Structures are given as C-alpha cells and as structure tokens.
Amino acid sequence: MKNSLADRSSGGIICAALITIFFFSGPLHSQEDLVSLSVKKIAPPSSLLATDHKYDNGNSISLSWVPSIDDALMNNPIVAYKLYRSSNDTEPNLIAELPPGSSYFLDNGVSTDNSYSYSVSASTNAYEVLSNRTESITPQSEWINYNKKYLFLMVMIISGAIMYFIVSAKRGKELFVRKIAGLEAIDEAVGRATEMGRPIMYIPGIQDMDDVQTIASLTILGRITRTIAEYDSKIFMPVARSLVMTAARETIKASYQAASRPDSYSDDMVNYITDEQFGYVAHVNGLMVREKPATVFLLGAFFAESLILAETGNSIGAIQIAGTARPAQLPFFIAACDFTLIGEELFAASAYLSGEPMQLGSLKGQDVGKAIAMFFVLLGVLAATVSAAWDIELFNNLLDNLNELFS
Amino acid sequence: MRRNIPLAVTFVVGMLLIVSVFLPPIETIGEDFGVFFSIIAVFAFFLGGGNLIKVHFGKIMKKSNDWEFSLVTVVGFFAMLIIGLFKIGAPGDISTSVTAEGSYFQEMFVYLINPLQSTMYALLAFFVASASYRAFRAKNREATILLVAAFIILLGRTPLGMMLTGWIPESFSIFQVPNLAVWIMNSPNLAGQRAIMIGISLGVVAMSLRLILGIERTYLGGDDKG
Amino acid sequence: MSLILARKEKRSSMDIGMFFAALLTLGIFSFLYKDNPVYKVCEAIFVGVSAGFWAITYFFDNIHKKFWLGVFPQEGDSPDYWLWGGAILGFLMLLRISNKIGWIARWPLSFIVGATAGLYMMLYFVSNALNQVADTMMPIVAYASDNSVLWLDTFGNFIVVLGVVTGLIYFFFSKEHKGLFGTGAQVGTWFLMITFGASFGYTVMSRMSLLIGRLDFLFGDWLGLF
Amino acid sequence: MLLLTFSDIGLIVTLVIIAAGLGLILKLALKGKEIDRRIIFIFIFFSVASPIIFQIKFSEKATAVVKSIYDKIDNLPEGSKILISFDFDPAMAPEVQPMAIVLGRHALIKGHEVVFMSLWTTGQSLLTEIINEYILPDFPEKQEFIDYVTLGFKAGNEGVLKVIATDFKKMFPVDNNGRPLDSIPIFDGVKSCSDFDLVISIGGGKPGPKEWILFVTDPSNIPMAVGVAAVIAPQMYPYYPAQVLGIMGGVKGAAEYESEFIGNYERFKDMKTPGLLTMGPQTLAHTVIMAFIIIGNIIYFRKRKKEAKS
C-alpha cells in the first residue's frame, strides 16, 4: 500500500496534503494517521432514504442508501457503514455498524411517539465521511399486516372446510370414519384391567398446559375416564406439572359425574410428583413396578423418557396405548407399545371417541385439509419439474405464484 | 354461569391469539401470554407442592408402607426450599443469583440432581437394546420393513458396514451400507417425517377450532351438572 | 481424570460430593436388575430435591424477575400493570382449594386452553403445514451442472414426493382404505415404517454415548482408574 | 515378536466373553427360549464398560469422505496456510472436539501455518482450552505468530464471513491478544480467505460449516473441509464433493481421522484419541444389539415353525 504513493503522478499534491494533515493532527495519533494518509479520500454514501416500515406496529423504520462509489470488491478501503439516528432533533447517536456492501437497514428501536432523522457514514480505518441527513420521519402503526394475506387465505380455507363439515354433520349428514386400532382397543384395555382387578395408569406427557399435546391428552382422558367410571375400575395418574394436576382433576371429576358415579371420584387419583423430567420418570418407573397397572396410557408430549417409560411398562406386562405428536419419539412407542397413535391421530382421538356428529365432522374437515396439501404438493412438483426442464412460461409463473402463496 | 363463562373466555382468548398474527398492534400478545402463563403456573405450584407435602406427610403419619422414603422426599424438598430461599452459601449479599458458583443450591444441583438426571437418561442405552430385541422381528410386512430400515442404519454406523460392503465398486457406491444409510435418512425417512408433520398440523388446527368453538369441552366437564 | 470429556462434577475422588454422585449413579442403575430399597432412596431424594429445585427456580425467575420487577421496576422504567392480570388469574387458580367456589378455578384454565389453542393453531399451521408443503414442491428431475440427469437424486426426489403423498393418504379418516386409495394408504404405512425404523437406528448411537459418559464418570473421575 | 498390550488383552478377553455369551444364548434360542431382558442389559453394560476400562480402540478404516481431508492436509507442501474455525459450544463439544484436536495436531506436525478462530461466543473458551491443553503440549517447538495464531471469537455471524471472504484484516485488524495482524508473520501475503490453502469449519449449528460454504469458500473456490455433529451430517452430503472436499460426521468421523493419523505418525501412536475411545464401546454395543436382533428373529421363526407343525 505504501508503495502506491510513489506511483502517483500527482505526488507533489499529495505530499502537500500529507504535510498539511500531519501538522493538524496531534502527535498522539501520528502512527494511525500515517496509515490513513496512504488511503485516498472516499466518497460518502448517497441518497439515504428513511421510510416507515409497512405493516408493523410503528416500531421500525427502513433505511436504504446507495453505497459509496469506493465500495468496490477489490482493495476496498471501506471498513464499515455507520448509521446515526437523531430523535426529535437531538444529538445523533450511533445505532448500527454494517459491513461494506450494505445498503439496507431496518431500525427496530423507534416508536410512534418521536420523530427521527438519519445519516449514514462510510468509514475507513481512520476516516469517516457522512451522507446528508434525512428529513424527519415519524413511524406509523398499521392495523392490518397485508404481507400475510396469503396466510390468512390459507387459514380461512382450512378452517372453513372444518367448520363446513361440523355444521353439515350437525344438520344430520351421515359421516364415515375409519377405524383407528389404538382407539378401538381402549374399551378392551379398560375391561382387562377391571377383570384382573388391577389399576389403570394414565401419563399425560411431561409438558404443561401451554402445550397443545397436553390439552389433547386431557380431552382423551375425559373420554377414557368415562369408560373407567362405568366399569368401576381404578385409575391413577402421576403428573409432572401442577397445572396439569388441577386440570386433570377437573376432567376426571366431571367424567365421574357424567357416568353418575361422583362418589367414586377422589382427588388422590391425580398426584403431582415433580417438574423435573427424569425425577418424574424415576418415580413413575417405581410406581409401575410396585402398583403393576394392567393398562398404561402414554398420551401427550414426550421426550427422551418415552422409551424408559414404555419399556418399564412392557416389563410388567401391561397393555400399553401410546400416542404423541413428537416425531422423534414415535419410533420408540411403535417399538415398545401395543398400540400407538401417530401424530394426527392423537388430536383426532377425542373426537373419534366422542362419536358426536359435530366432532366427527371436524375430522372430515381435516381430511379436506390433507387433500388440499396433496394437491399443492403435486401441483408444485409438476410446475417445478416442467419449469426446470423446459422453462415454459406458464409453469414458471405457476411456480412463482405457488412460492408466493407459501412464503 | 359455571360453564358459559369459561367457554366464552376460551373463545375470546383463542380468537384474539389467532387474529393477533395479522394485526401488528397486538402482534406480541403471544409472548405476553407466555409471561402470564409462567405467573399462573407458579401459583398453581402451591397446589402441586401442597399436594406433594400432603401425600407424603399422610404416609409418614399413618406409617404406611414405605413411609421412610416419604420422609426422605419431604426432607429433600424442604432442604432445597430453605437453601434456595435464603441463598445459603451464595457469595455476596442477597442480590446475588441463587445459582451463583459456590451456593449450596448450585452444589445440590451439581452433585445430586445432575448425576441422577444423567443416570436416568443413560438407562436409555439399556432400554434401546431390549426394545430393539423384542420389536424388530419380521412378523409381517410392516414389521419387516421396520426391521430392515433399522438394521441398515445400525450397520451403517459401525465399521462393520464398510467391512461388509466396501468391495462394491465406486460406481455402485450407493449400495455400500454407510451410503445407503445416508440415502434412507435423506429420502424415505424425510418423506415420512413430512407426512407426519403435515398431518399433525392439520390435527392441531382442527382440535384448536373444536376447543375455541366450544365443541370440545371435556376439560371443563362432560355435561352441564358441573 | 476423565477419559473422554470434562464434566461438571470435576473434583478429586475424596470429595464428599463426588462420593454421593457416584452412589446415586449406582443406585439408579440398580433398578435395571429390579426395584430395591437403594433405588427407592435415590428416587425419593430425586423427587424431593428436584421439586424443591424447581419451586425455587420458578419463584426467582417468574415471580421475582418477571412479575415483581415488572410491576415494581427499578427507577426510570414504567411499571407493566398488565402483569397483575397474570397474578389475578393465578390467584383464581388457588380458589380450587375451596369446595364452594372452587369452580372459579376453571376461568384461568379456560384462559390457558383458549390461548394455547389459538397460539398453536397458527404456529403449527405455518411451521408444519405450509413450510413442509413448500419444501416438497421441488423439481423431481435433478440435473448436474453440465445438464446431464442425476438419476440417483431424481429417484430420491421421486421417493420423497411419493412418500409425502401416500403418507398423507394413510392419515385420511373419512375414507375407507380400499381399492386404489387403500393401496396408497398401504404404501404410506411402509414409508412410515421406514421412517420409524431409521430414526430408531439413528438414535441408538447417541443413547450409547450417555452410558459411556456415566461409566467414564464412575471409572475415571470417581475410581480414578485412568 | 508378538507383544500384547493391555488393550489387546482386554479386547481379546472381551470378544471371547461376548462371543461365548452370544453363542450360549443362541443355543438357548434355537431351543425356542425367550431371553430375559436383564441378560441383554448385562451384555450392553459389559460391551460398553469393558472397552472403557481396557481403552480398546478399533482401527477405523477411513471412508472416502474423511480420507480426502486427511490426504489434503498431508499432501499440502510444508508451510501452507490453514484456517480452522471452531464454530461450536460446550453442548456440541463431545462430538466435534475430538476433530478439532486431531486436525490441529495434524496441521502442526506437517509444518503448516495454522490460524484458529471462532464464530461462536461460547467457542472462545473452548478454543483456548483445546489449543493450550490438548494441542500445544505436544509441540513445544512451535512458536506463536510463526507457526500458529489464535484470532479468537468475532461477533457478527455471517457478516464476519462476508467480510473476510474479501478482506481478512478488515474484520480482524488484531489477533486475540491485540497484536496487529500486519506484524504477524503468518499473515504476510494474506489478504482474504482465498490466500489460505485450506479452510476448515468444525461445528454443527448456525453459523457453521454451511455458512462458510455459502459465503466464503464456494464463491471463491477455496478448498474447504468440514467437521459436523452426526445429526447435521446428512445435510452436508449434498455439498460433497463439489463444494467441500471432505466431511467428518460425528464421533465416527473423528475416530476415522484419528485412526488414520495415529497409524501414520509414530510419534502420536499413544496419544489420547477421544474419538476412537468413544467409538470402541459404541461399535461393540451396536454389534451386540444387532446380534440380539438376529437372535430375536431366530427365536421368532423357530416358534412359528413349531406352531405351524402343531
């Protein structure tokens, strides 16, 4: 870099500049300045534009600018772009440093209460040059995010299909629902426990009520305990969360009332153990081998403990009906349990068991959702394949539209 | 009253969270719910922890079977509460974190909870073996497929896989077990995972709608007497 | 010294904490033979201590940090009054103890159920359904950079699409699995079986490492064999 | 002369016991007897514990994807410049740390000039620990700044990569200790990443190997090798061999590399090889599990045959 000085035809001018700058800069930064002197002056970034970021809560402003003309690929002198913001015409503050080549930034640190103006600088190791300051701008808050219009459309189609079939089922339209083996087995499993005079164990996973799988599990619990109450079998349910304990007690109590056996219900059926994943598992394992339940339900959100529980349950010879929507744990349930509800079946179980037309109607609606998913998969594959092979405009456009729809 | 207010609450809150996705001013309401939930959960812990004490005290008082172990549990529980609340052993004043290096609370975690956790977790090594012994049998076509897929993957992860099939020429290298294992993971396995995930999401949508619309109400009780 | 990894319990074998950690490790392993008093002690300690651990952790994280510092913030910040909502719902939860007005505890429950349903419906719909469908919309025929067809990758892509579609057919509830549709569902089950078998085989190795870690602790850190 | 080491004896004893045990069980199985799960537990315990106690290592034959990395480092002329980025945290460390150690050793013993860095905050302390405690003690003769240099952690994720792809010193004006890069001999003639003869990223999260490929080595055609956690490995295969010259996946990848390394360098014959040491128990346990699956099927078919007869 230092050699390049000598190559300049206008060496004299630069020398003069060199001397001038040398005089003005104090002795303290002399070393750094020597480096900077060898760098030619750079042009500032230009056309800085601050616009309100669309469709947000007024908490962001988007900034774009044309990079400095010296921001080149080779021998780039620019180290960073620095963004300065002044709110309500106060002293500007540095808000971001961006690598060379940048020309866009989204400032998320603003609010609708203030107005802001910006400037951007290009800087080398020793030198900084500022752009013009922008006009003052106050971010706006919008009510509706139109960027998500396609998501809204999709949600409406799927929900619409589900609700349509719920309503038509309510009007008395007959609906076919295929058999789900794991659910068909419930009656038999409960009956077996009654015959053997042994209890039934119900494990709702280890997540709290803010997981949709736990809620699904409790809706199934409501159906199963109804049967249990009718058979007058015993159920016990260790849980890992206090809220789940409370909710499960409500559910079981209601089922016993519905089966006209409110006196058989007791709070002791559901017990909180500990929030700790493996502490809970240690206790449940112990309970299994000591109480020897004839039937074990493992329905809900499970993690690594799935196989520990299922294998222990298997070792005591219990009939095990499991189900989870965590794909990583499904293989273990498949391997160690008698029946497994795979993903979607877990969520459909309560509706299936209820046998109520409206509930079954929602299952039919789900199927429409799957049909739509299959349709788009096949359409997308066709469009992508044709477009990649022959570059036909119709299919290119189709692919673009599909990508936008699913973005 | 007892039934309708909860149903109305579910409906309003559920709808609010759905539309919040499309409305910037209330976009962050989902995160706020998370904070709400964590506060409610602590209150609920009074019920859970209370139940824990009740059950074990009951056993100790009645001297029922295995009451000695209940004593251990209760002592452990209270010891942890005291150590934690008073931050015993934590360096500095009361404002230091309860998990600061050197606090008894942290020591208990490192020397009691941590080894217990990892050992319980390690039991999986044994159960994975006994489960595969029992489950991977060629009982029917489905079970055979399960068995073959698992066996190829297992083989592909040991030197045995390369030893057995290393002779296959490079142009057919896909049939070398380690490569075949990678292919299975990337193609049929991926497809199955996707089908499961798409199914799950539709199941969640339908169940959520049933809950929000009040069609599914078992968690509030099966009929109107409650 | 440990053979393979450095872990949290890193101290000399004379240390009392180390001794307990080793004892608890052995106690949990003893369950593999059968249930016994040593395991029961470990279990009792685990339950009591960990319940206390989480009670304290929740208290400091949720009540102190999130709630208390939220409504009574340090000087300069404005208090978040809406957090009281969580506290009130939490308090309603506690009414569960009362026989008379215990039913009010359903309000916070229905609040949670509604919010979870709404939140998860959108979350799953976007991340599971839309994204997975979008990822599957790919060209089946794969080309190399010189425009020749990569047959193996093409076959892999075909398998992915076939697996997703037939897998979804398997999940159909309202149509009997008969005829062509039945064949589709049958193929779908095969894909699911490959997925389960492969995922199972794939996890065996990581489960073994857990056991290796524990034994490494026992032999290395504790007994000091190496 | 045949000299058996402690490990060899251990291996022989272990194999004999396991083989005899399996044989016995097979005999029982042929009679149609089911096996108690506790017997399986004993086998698993033994097949994991024994290799740990006896420090048994199986020699792993390096697969092509790993061998190509080894060959690349081995064949580069002495004094080549290699950049190794540690893009992982303590949670991922058990799987990828062995790779970092063996790669560092190999590069140094070949006399290459090695630059270490990290894109992860949590990688900083691991970086220091691995270099100071595992790698350097074996190389007292190596000098900092001449043979190796540690740049430490740099915040900015992909941003860092985009910059160093064209200008290294812009992102790293100084090294970990504040020494200007201009005064470090290794960086003589280094302008951008293209001036390295090999770039290696070890990690599994984001930013990690994938980002290195996308932002740095692929656009500039720099030789690139990656080491990743086992779960990420399948995602890396599409880049091989066009964009990356080799992949080490999980402990197995590390073990293959270690095996190749200690086999060729007498000086490191007895070094601690965490990869191989973890693979020993895993290989035995996998083999035992597969043996039991086979035995299980034999029992099943026996039974079915019997039932068909009666």
What fold name stands as the CATH topology of the largest domain in chain D? Rossmann fold
- Strand fraction of chain D equals 5-15%
CATH architecture of the largest domain in chain D: 3-Layer(aba) Sandwich
CATH class of the largest domain in chain D reads: Alpha Beta
Unreliable spans of chain B are 222-226
* Beta fraction of chain B: under 5%
- SSE pattern of chain B: HHHHHHHH
- Biggest sheet, spatial arrangement of strands of chain D: 3-2-1-4-5-6
Highlighted features:
heterotetramer; A: 407 residues; Immunoglobulin-like; 4 domains; six-stranded parallel beta sheet; four-stranded antiparallel beta sheet; 13 helices; B: 226 residues; 0% strand; disordered C terminus
How would you describe the overall organization of this protein?
Chain A is of the alpha/beta class and 407 residues long. Chain A folds into 4 domains: 4-37, no CATH class; 46-130, Immunoglobulin-like; 150-163 and 359-405, no CATH class; 175-355, Rossmann fold. Chain A has helices at residues 4-7, 11-24, 30-37, 149-170, 181-196, 212-231, 242-258, 277-291, 305-315, 330-336, 344-354, 357-390, 393-405; strands at 46-52, 61-66, 80-87, 93-98, 104-107, 116-123, 128-130, 200-205, 235-239, 270-272, 295-301, 319-324, 339-342. Chain A has a 6-stranded parallel sheet with strand order 10-9-8-11-12-13, with helices on both faces. In chain A, a hairpin with a 5-residue loop joins strand 3 (80-87) and strand 4 (93-98). In chain A, helix 5 (181-196) packs across helix 6 (212-231), helix 6 (212-231) packs parallel to helix 7 (242-258) and helix 12 (357-390) crosses helix 13. Chain A starts with a helix and ends with a helix. Mean pLDDT of chain A is 86; it is low at 1-39. Chain B has 226 residues and is an all-alpha fold. Chain B has 8 helices and no strands. In chain C, helix 1 (16-29) packs across helix 2, helix 1 runs antiparallel to helix 6 (179-222) and helix 3 (83-94) packs across helix 4. Chain C starts with 15 loop residues before the first helix and ends with a helix. Chain D has 2 domains: 6-57 and 273-309; 64-268, Rossmann fold (3-Layer(aba) Sandwich). Chain D has 11 helices and 6 strands. Chain D starts with 5 loop residues before the first helix and ends with a helix. Chains B and C meet through helix 1, helix 2, helix 3, helix 4 and helix 5 of B and helix 1, helix 2, helix 3, helix 4 and helix 5 of C.
